[in-house]
Amino acid sequence: MRKILPLTVIFFCLFIESRxxxxxxxxxxxxxxxxxxxxxxxxTCYNIDYYHLDVKIDIERKFIGGSNEFVFTAAQNFSKxxxxxxxxMKVEKVVYDGRxxxxxxxxNAVFVTFPKEIKKGSKGRFTVFYSGNxxxxxxxxxxxxxxxxxxxxxxxxxxxACQGLGASVWWPTKDHQxxxxxxxxxxVTAPADLQTVANGRLRSIVQKPGGYxxxxxxxxxxxxxxxxxxxxGKYAHWTDQYQGxxxxxxxxxxxxxxxxxxxxxxxxxDVKPMLKSFEHWFGPYPFYKDxxxxxxxxxxxxxHQSAVAYGNKFKKGYLGGDLxxxxxxxxxxxxxxxxxxxxxxxNNITTKDIADMxxxxxxxxxxxxxxxxxxxxxAAGSEYVIGIRKKIRNDIPLIGPYNVNHEGSGDMYYKGAxxxxxxxxxxxxxxxxxxxxxxxxxxFYHKTVTTKEIETYIATxxxxxxxxxxxxxxxxxxxPVLEYKIRNNQLSYRWAKTVKEFSMPVKVTLKKDxxxxxxxAAAWKTIPVNKxxxxxxxxxxxxxxILTRRVDK
Length: 553
Hints:
The protein has 553 residues and is α+β, with helices and mostly antiparallel strands. The chain contains eleven helices and 28 strands.
């Protein structure tokens, strides 16, 4: 029989390991962080195949209760495993093969002991019964948890958003992005006079005693935990169809009844053009089986798979503002475009560790640029992505510390998009670049990935040496500085403030207003230039996210 080390020994070792991976010594992570973020043998010993989440929502008491059935395949022999549920939620019992199992809790982790060893390759199931008052979000969706509020007419309006915080804030689950459940049944019991929406497709509504109704929604595609959500309110519902690359895609729209008059034309303006643009650039919508839904939510928005949360108040831009400050950001509804873009990057392609969340947010932020380009031309798209650079802080690296459930810099949005735009310039062939984006979504279709896998794919398919470029923009905060000086019709140039062995070609003006390629390195290089080129009119192509500095000595 395979021996399992005592939990205290395992987590002491894992804690030390996670600490060693931190970017600096300034951050302090706890055992609770490691339990949440680390893939220990008590998590890797089983793979999730199916969940049946069955929950009742008591809106007045802000209380939830129910069960979640885990159907799993053993990845190795084991007799103990970990699942996750926030400590403020009560685990009432864990039932396996008709009997209650022993369990113990450490922070938000729950450890279950089975009566006999589960053999590798075997399938099994157990059900966790639970209840409690879930964490209520203070500032959703950034501060995660449940939202209990009312619409303007005074009707209850309920939802949940938990990215980063974790799905275990409200339901028992194996709360790690690396293991997406293959399919999921979500049964939500709520007041019968309200409508309940969740991910996937509605299978049935069953009337329950006491004025309640159970809505059963089935998700037939792999889904990450934080994407599982629900919406309860006085909704209006209408449908449409989009003829896409994989046939007819069902479109479902759920707005509050009181907002349906303005919701219909507003969403109509963006949704089909968005799908056309994203299928062109990224490939087929990844969830034809589950359809596309846009659901009005009591928070700004979230990429809930096949049930995208919308809360942008039916305004163009970001709550009526333009993040790029170019005017292009007011041509579309930011939340409709951005959160829908996550269906490809974040939902179809999901990172194993949230330290790599730049993959979700960088590519999705760039989807705004590509949508702008699709609608208004390439120059407009470039102006948009260049415009959002003003919001980059370069405070900490885009990639966070691994194994402690911690993200990198918020620059993952704007800097991530500009990194992708820079790579597009290096590829220097838009059809090839589009093939890269479509290839990512085909190669990693419904899969979880690491940053390294994404880097390797892009470098291999593009034929470019990108390792130091990825290091510079993902793992460091300094932006490459192109130093230059022009004397006697000679241009001298080099890269400064870069990682060791950094090399990247860039377009600059070798003749007045005419851009050509140069390949700077750490050492100075010198080439002859036209006498019209001066220190004053020398420029680098703004499509490259770099800095320039004139050096007089």
